[in-house]
Amino acid sequence: MSGIDLENYVQVIKAVRDGTNGLEWASFSVDGQNLKVEKTGNSINTIRENVPDNSFCFILIRVFLSEDKGQLNLKNVSEIGRVKFVLITWIGLRMDPKQRGTILETSPFVKEKVGHVHVDIGTSSTDDLTEQYIVEKVKNAAGAFYDNGGDKSQTSNSEGVGQQSIKSEDIQKPKTGGKGGRRLIGNAKGSSKLPDEDD
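Given the sequence above, the corresponding structure tokens read:
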């Protein structure tokens, strides 16, 4: 990719945030006191095929939410809209359970390196790595709800609304049943209830 050293995590993070060369996401692992760039991509739809099933990684995603159309638009930033950033903590279903504690230990370090994000998601399900799921999380976290006509009914000016943290009980009590794994964070409005918990 022209002008970007893909082995330099600082450059890659900046490229994702700036949208340099159309870069829309990058995944990272932790290597000592640094991040290691694992994968990068120009389309959010390519994330699902680039995550490991036997380990974990952190994925920074740049999302442009068009206020004109109420749609996810990752290309045309000339439209009226807002750029939002998502950090996904991906946890492979075949990962050694002993590694789960490492996620809690490294998560604050990773967040410090990648910088501010608007939505923080932890998941083991590839269903949560779709464009539709991620844009809904972004829209809910921003407090903006759109219809197909693009009319905005509510807008929040608060930075970081909907941000969530990975809780230890979510990491240490994995459930492997069900299609595609489980979601470790319930929703973008601050609820940490898991989908399979009863009221």
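Strands lie at 25-31, 34-41, 56-66, 71-72, 81-91, 119-123. Try to locate this feature in the token string yourself.
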